[in-house]
Amino acid sequence: QVQLVESGGGLVQPGGSLRLSCAASGRIFSNDAMGWYRQVSGKQRELVAIITSGGTTNYVDSVKGRFTIWRTNANTMYLQMNSLKPEDTAVYYCNAKQIGPHGYDAWGQGTQVTVSS
Q1: pLDDT at residue 86 in the model
Q2: CA-to-CA distance for 10 and 53, rounded, in angstroms?
Q3: Which residue from 30, 57, 62, 117 has the least number of CB within 10 angstroms?
Q4: By the 8 A CB rule, do 36 and 57 touch?
Q5: Mean pLDDT along residues 71-100
Q6: Could you tell me which residues come within 8 angstroms of residue 58 by beta carbon, excluding any fewer than 6 positions away?
Q7: CA pseudo-torsion sign 69, 22, 74, 3
Q8: How far apart, in whole angstroms, are the C-alpha atoms of residue 69 and residue 34?
Q9: Which pLDDT tens digit goes with each residue over 61-84?
Q10: CA pair distance 117, 104, nearest whole angstrom
Q11: 117-6-72-24 Cα dihedral, nearest 10 degrees
Q12: Percent of the chain having pLDDT more than 90?
């Protein structure tokens, strides 16, 4: 079973930066997909950035050029968020998944990011 723990959220002024971290434990492999999602109360959870099983990175259009996702090993993933905007305010969730008969879909507990002056 894979467990995920996010950290690094907080309050930041518009234009500021934050770095989120996701620490994974359990049976996770470097070619499992990992990503960051966010959710605003009352709205659907949306994909922010993902590292696919093939190592490709993809971003939602609204964060391209401002956010960077990377993974240092099978167990650690980051999201660098620069030039933050109030509309980036949300709870950010780490996700890891493996497709297949023995696959899984794991989520962290979420970390709050608030962009406000």
Answers
A1: 98
A2: 29
A3: 117
A4: no
A5: 96
A6: 49, 50, 52
A7: negative
A8: 10
A9: 999 999 999 999 999 999 999 999
A10: 39
A11: -170
A12: 90
Look up residue 48 and give its amino acid: V
- Minimal CA–CA distance to 28: which of 96, 90, 82, 84? 96
Please give the structure tokens belonging to residue 33. 């997909």
> What does the block give as tokens for 57?
């990175």
The SS3 call for residue 84 is: coil
Tokens 């659907």 correspond to 44
Encoded amino acid at 11, one letter: L
Q: How many residues make up the chain in this entry?
A: 117
Task: For residue 62, give the 3-state DSSP assignment.
Answer: helix
99 falls in which pLDDT band (50, 70, 90)? confident
